[in-house]
């Protein structure tokens, strides 16, 4: 008899996006003439930067010739990419991260889940509420939680609310936690942590010997000088933080797949017998055993992001989405809505009008404005009464959507 991992049965069965899909298909079937605009899922819409495309074409041609063909590469990533990342994303900002502390992978989603492999079972884990669901679900799968309550909160996790009341900056936990997930700029709220907020977290982590899992997938969207691009811009963070980065939102790699995780040397955690062990070595062991590297072609594409042409093309791409977000914020405010985010991130987090629940607002917006967003409550109990709109869309759709929201709110 084979047994399953019972922890999987605790999961709230992928409720959010399937439920959105179900409601949208039902509406579309009943209203075949309606032109539905989807601003729900956080996927990019614009093509890859030209520099990435030509680098990948060249790499494909290399693979076609015996002399330049490549088989397996280093599991941690090719040096050309790790060095470009270390120089451009960290050292240029005064963060002392070296190429051999960077582990190239096929996604931050996988990395944020896989990292739990090298950590113990008894850690007290804190997540924000609302939260990127991957952090929670991977802890459930790993057996780090009990059952979920009616509001979807799992026993054993520490939830740190992010609401209007704290301007979406989570307060330090009252109890001692061992691991905390921070995502800045944030998905879903679109808000970003200031330098002083991150300094408080690094200080907390060092005092409590906790580790911060810092997800900076939206780093490229930062526009304000006071918002750090990397946790390692904060003094002492090398001792207490692992950072997750991705080319997905920066350069439109959601379908191409390339990301990286930074595990600084000297960052340690405790064994059950009380010794300190470096996480760098453990992650290297995990990565080389369970992963065989990102495609050479894709890594050449990612490297091209750091060329002068690549940098300017990526800037243009990010600016395009940020302009969408600016237009959305301005348009929704004009409609009388209260909106957050959209300045350092491609997400706008609005307060539902008239105290509507997130799902009631979803239904009304769909039926009256033919517009799809994401109910805030799907990201956690504290997301109730909020709603996420994504700026990943064409300009025409964004302008049309703003007009429809205005009519909807006024009607
Ligand atoms: C999109 C996103 C990522 C990136 O995931 P990939 O697997 O690299 O595509 C990571 N974290 C958050 C919060 C995201 O929204």
TrEMBL record:
Q: Catalytic activity annotated for this protein?
A: (2S,6S)-2,6-diaminopimelate + 2-oxoglutarate = (S)-2,3,4,5-tetrahydrodipicolinate + L-glutamate + H2O + H(+)
Q: Which residues form the Aminotransferase class I/classII large domain?
A: 35-405
**A Pfam family annotated for this UniProt entry:** Aminotran_1_2
Main EC class the enzyme belongs to: transferase
Q: Which UniProt keywords apply?
A: Aminotransferase, Pyridoxal phosphate, Transferase
Q: Sorted alphabetically, which CDD domains does this protein's record hold? A: AAT_like
Pathway listed = Amino-acid biosynthesis; L-lysine biosynthesis via DAP pathway; LL-2,6-diaminopimelate from (S)-tetrahydrodipicolinate (aminotransferase route): step 1/1
Q: Which GO biological process entries does UniProt record here?
A: lysine biosynthetic process via diaminopimelate
Give this protein's Gene Ontology molecular function annotations. Answer: L,L-diaminopimelate aminotransferase activity; pyridoxal phosphate binding
Entries under HAMAP family matching the protein: DapL_aminotrans_1 (MF_01642)
Q: Which PANTHER family match?
A: AMINOTRANSFERASE
Q: What name goes with this protein?
A: LL-diaminopimelate aminotransferase
Give the source species: Planctopirus ephydatiae
- Name of the gene this protein is made from: dapL
């Amino acid at each position: 008899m084979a047994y399953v991992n019972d922890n999987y049965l605790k999961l709230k069965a992928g409720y959010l996006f399937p439920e959105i899909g179900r409601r949208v298909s039902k509406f579309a079937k009943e209203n075949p003439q309606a032109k539905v605009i989807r601003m729900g899922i956080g996927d990019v819409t614009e093509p890859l930067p030209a520099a990435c495309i030509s680098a990948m074409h060249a790499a494909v041609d290399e693979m076609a010739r015996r002399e330049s063909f490549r088989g397996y590469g280093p599991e941690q990533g090719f040096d050309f990419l790790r060095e470009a990342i270390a120089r451009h994303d960290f050292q240029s900002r005064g963060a002392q991260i070296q190429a051999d502390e960077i582990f190239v992978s096929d996604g931050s989603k996988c990395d944020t889940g896989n990292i739990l492999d090298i950590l113990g079972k008894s850690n007290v884990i804190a997540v924000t509420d609302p939260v990127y669901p991957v952090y929670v679900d991977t802890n459930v799968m790993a057996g780090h939680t009990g059952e979920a309550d009616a509001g979807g909160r799992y026993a054993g996790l520490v939830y740190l609310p992010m609401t209007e009341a704290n301007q979406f900056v989570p307060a330090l936990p009252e109890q001692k936690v061992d691991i905390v997930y921070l995502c800045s700029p944030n998905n879903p709220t679109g808000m970003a942590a200031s330098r002083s907020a991150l300094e408080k977290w690094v200080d907390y982590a060092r005092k409590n010997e906790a580790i911060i899992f810092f997800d900076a997938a939206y780093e490229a969207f930062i526009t304000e000088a006071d918002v750090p691009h990397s946790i390692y811009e904060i003094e002492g963070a090398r001792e207490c933080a692992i950072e997750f980065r991705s080319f997905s939102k920066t350069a439109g790699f959601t379908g191409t797949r390339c990301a990286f995780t930074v595990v600084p040397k000297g960052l340690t955690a405790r064994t059950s017998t009380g010794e300190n062990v470096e996480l760098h070595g453990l992650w290297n062991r995990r990565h080389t055993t369970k992963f065989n590297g990102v495609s050479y072609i894709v890594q050449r594409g990612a490297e091209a992001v750091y060329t002068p042409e690549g940098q300017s093309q990526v800037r243009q791409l990010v600016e395009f989405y940020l302009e969408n977000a600016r237009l959305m914020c301005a348009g929704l405010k004009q409609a009388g809505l209260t909106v957050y985010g959209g300045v350092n991130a491609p997400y706008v987090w609005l307060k539902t009008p008239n105290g509507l629940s997130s799902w009631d607002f979803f239904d009304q917006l769909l039926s009256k404005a033919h517009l799809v967003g994401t109910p805030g409550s799907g990201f956690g109990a504290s997301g109730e009464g909020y709603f996420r709109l994504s700026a990943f869309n064409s300009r025409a759709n964004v302008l049309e959507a703003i007009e429809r929201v205005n009519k909807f709110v006024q009607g």
